[in-house]
């Protein structure tokens, strides 16, 4: 409610200053574009500063970009992940529900070697293991009329 009221106030003041009859949606879109452009320029500047290879110092972001950044600093917050750039933040390991669980892989022991009695892909020992009894079941043959070659 307060945001809507404030956008109407901004629209009215801007139209008084410029003498043009822009709508609220046009002004919101212009602000959004200004923020996106400022973010891109500030980001490019930071990337250029951390680039290797020497050369000249990159130009600073424009005064307009810095002004937009000062108006809406919450839109320019950069989050870092020390482990992976596309990983999700799952909180700290001590939080409830945030635990690691090992996923068992059939045929691989904890040391990463094959367990006795299991076969590697491509070997002659064919078939599957019964999950309940852990015994080898023979491979079922597909009827000849259902085979695909």
Automatic annotation (TrEMBL):
Chain intervals with Polar residues compositional bias: 108-126
Bias (Basic and acidic residues): 127-149
Region (Disordered): 39-66, 82-149
Name of this protein: (diamondback moth) hypothetical protein
């Amino acid at each position: 409610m307060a945001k809507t009221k404030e956008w109407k106030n901004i629209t009215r003041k801007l139209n008084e200053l410029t003498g043009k009859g822009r709508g609220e949606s046009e002004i919101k879109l212009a602000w959004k574009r200004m923020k996106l452009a400022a973010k891109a320029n500030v980001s490019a500047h930071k990337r250029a500063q951390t680039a290797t290879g020497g050369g000249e110092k990159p130009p600073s972001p424009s005064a307009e970009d810095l002004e937009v950044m000062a108006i809406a600093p919450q839109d320019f917050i950069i989050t870092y992940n020390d482990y992976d750039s596309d990983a999700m933040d799952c909180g700290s390991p001590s939080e409830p529900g945030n635990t690691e669980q090992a996923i068992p892989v059939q045929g691989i022991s904890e040391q990463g070697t094959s367990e006795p009695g299991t076969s590697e892909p491509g070997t002659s020992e064919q078939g599957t293991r019964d999950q309940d009894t852990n015994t080898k079941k023979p491979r079922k043959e597909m009827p000849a009329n259902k085979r695909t070659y």
